[in-house]
Amino acid sequence: xxVGSVAAxxxxxxxxxxVFHGVLGTDPAFHAKVMLEPWVPTTVAVAQAxxxxxxxxEPDPRAPVQFxxxxxxxNAGRCLGWGxxxxxxxxxxxxxxxxxxxxAARGRGLGLDAVRLLCRYAFEVRDLHRVGLETxxxxxxxxxxxxxxxxxxxxxxxxxxxxxxxxxxxxxYGLLRSDWKAAQAx
Length: 186
Ligand SMILES: CC(C)(COP(=O)(O)OP(=O)(O)OC[C@H]1O[C@@H](n2cnc3c(N)ncnc32)[C@H](O)[C@@H]1OP(=O)(O)O)[C@@H](O)C(=O)NCCC(=O)NCCS
Known about the structure:
Layout lengths: L1 E2 L3 E4 L5 H10 L2 H7 L9 H12 L9 E7 L9 E9 L4 E8 L8 H16 L4 E7 L3 H9 L3 E12 L2 E11 H9 L1
Bound molecules: coenzyme A (COA).
Coenzyme A binds next to strand 5, helix 4 and helix 5.
């Protein structure tokens, strides 16, 4: 487990899948704001079947790494959201991160801490060089979280995103290993 000041990242447990489904699986409008692929109706049983199949697979160092976000002080380890390191490129040594919390857990510093922990995982555990983070221009909480975590805004892809009938600009952020190291030292 990676433990921060208020959040911790741990392995995804089978029982977490119903929490993820409650946030992502039932609301197409929310899904459109945070996921790249389109919403399709699905059940927790489908996610459980995928989870079970994944347990038998050989670990792949390029595969997305999924975490569950919990409070740093919760011994019961209740699932408050998810964090992902994805798009891992072992030649360029780059990857991207994504994070999402259940509504009740938002606005209390957990998202920022989870982003910091994902960066720590990327740089310290996986020895990567750069982490990217992308979000819609309309996602003020995520944009502020990226800046608070030390990311630099690097560009805007005009109308690159699509959500429920609207074209939305996508904002690109990046954090280099050297930025991260300097922030640790300071
Ligand atoms: C985006 C998200 C992970 C941020 O986590 P959080 O725990 O809510 O945010 P924190 O409490 O850690 O605050 C981090 C920053 O966001 C800002 N913020 C949080 N909620 C906000 C809101 N509703 N409106 C504007 N800013 C907000 C905080 O003020 C802080 O910025 P600051 O340091 O400049 O003051 C969380 O809100 C979430 O899960 N949202 C839904 C899923 C999502 O959009 N994921 C990202 C997809 S790209």
